[in-house]
Amino acid sequence: TILSRGYNLTKHLTRQDFYTSISTKMMREHRLVFKWTAVSISDHFSNSIVKKIESESRERYTNLFPTLPYIGGKRNNETINVIMGGIIISIIQPLADRGLSEREIGKIVFDSFEGYFQARPKILRAIIGRILSTKYAIRRMKKQIEQDSKLNYSDNFKMEIVEPHNDEFEFGYNYTSCSLCKMFEDNNLKEYHKYMC
Can you give the pTM of this predicted structure? Predict the structure, then answer.
């Protein structure tokens, strides 16, 4: 995850301080995601327009930092979702301004994430997949969910564990409250939240 990729985070009291303190790393993630966005939107726009959209998106993302919900920083595994949600919001807005339909933008969001995650080596993805499905990893995830839910932040995600029945699945959880829903609503992009999911 982003938060395990070289981030030297300390505890911060305010959302503005926290996201500003990791802004360089957050902008790096924006570049990695937008690399795949650029591929996806090349069918719609010329290279010069794609570069302009990237510039606008970077500026919008930076302007979002003070508004991103602070949910505990590094102590909360869900912080990565806030960071990625901000990136996607900053990409959606300039595309919507240029008249792309909701469905077209939704596919661009999907393609951007697919490229971003598929860029990791296949062997690494296979190893991570195997590790995450072990009983030890599932116990750790359950413990982390319980810990995250106890963090007292008004904008925090809230989750509940779903135990398997008849071996239908190994492990599950439901979000009962979602920071991303509020983020998208606050930016008048509520209809795009489903693509982020």
Answer: 0.82
